[in-house]
Amino acid sequence: xxxxxxxxxxxxxxxxxxxxxxxxxxxxxxxxxxxxxxxxxxxxxxxxxxxxxxxxxxxxxxxxxxxxxxxxxxxxxxxxxxxxxxxxxxxxxxxxxxxxxxxxxxxxxxxxxxxxxxxxxxxxxxxxxxxxxxxxxxxxxxxxxxxxxxxxxxxxxxxxxxxxxxxxxxxxxxxxxxxxxxxxxxxxxxxxxxxxxxxx
Amino acid sequence: xxxxxxxxxxxxxxxxxxxxxxxxxxxxxxxxxxxxxxxxxxxxxxxxxxxxxxxxxxxxxxxxxxxxxxxxxxxxxxxxxxxxxxxxxxxxxxxxxxxxxxxxxxxxxxxxxxxxxxxxxxxxxxxxxxxxxxxxxxxxxxxxxxxxxxxxxxxxxxxxxxxxxxxxxxxxxxxx
Lengths: 200, 176
Fold this sequence. Notes:
By secondary structure, chain A is mainly alpha-helical.
């Protein structure tokens, strides 16, 4: 996975990526990566878009993903919309979105119906409980990885904001809207001040 | 509540959450739990953690926990409304911002905005982890499974699906 099969030197900057995908191609490509993606679609999206179809260079992909990560909402859903739109406008966005979300929604809805019918069976409840414990462990590991670069920076303002948001939402259990209405402007203001001071 | 007003509640709840999901859908787990369990009494703590487990076991983006919540509250219509409400507003926002940025790619505000959101998004993720741990890890054995999975995920390259299966088997065997 680490070695990209893309040629290092491309003939012209504009011809790095291959042909433009059509609507059906977009739908099926996203459906495929979505159904392959147990516990996260990103790895598969990267593999399909960059390595298999060569619709984007690794740099373009990283840039598109960074944008989708900082915008609100499910990242990979945002990515499908941005990606589809870049090639085919709004119809492309809709095709990629429906490919990504449609097939798994059908599966999850069936599972939800099964759960509604049999969810009370003790053996199933115990099993789901065990899965959930393991899933939370995986989730905590992801958080741990995200914390490392932040802790390395040792920036007190960032850490104070992080802890304040954690306490407000996780411990005090305040609603999300008022917390974000305060936290986002404060954070933007502080970041702006810090950057300004760094420049001057 | 009549069916239409239930669907409207679902649409409004998740439509707003879509625009508040900074750093991804998992950032809003505390808010989903607060609304579904505490405010609306749609489900119990253990049903919520069951749905988290099912969403993790299913293929596709993790955001599909909202499909399960929607189905639980209002059947197939609820599932569809919840899914589109959670994905739609943020998707439209992403589409327009992406087009905007392509036209003016040298502005400095995206970088400031992005940097400012990092601590908030990680703070929200920590809160999600904390809330999930409180709802699920009620016994020492359960906590041990969580810790083991976290450590294995950090130090090995084992496929996560195996840890979920192992957790399920331990649960089935009655360890949790």
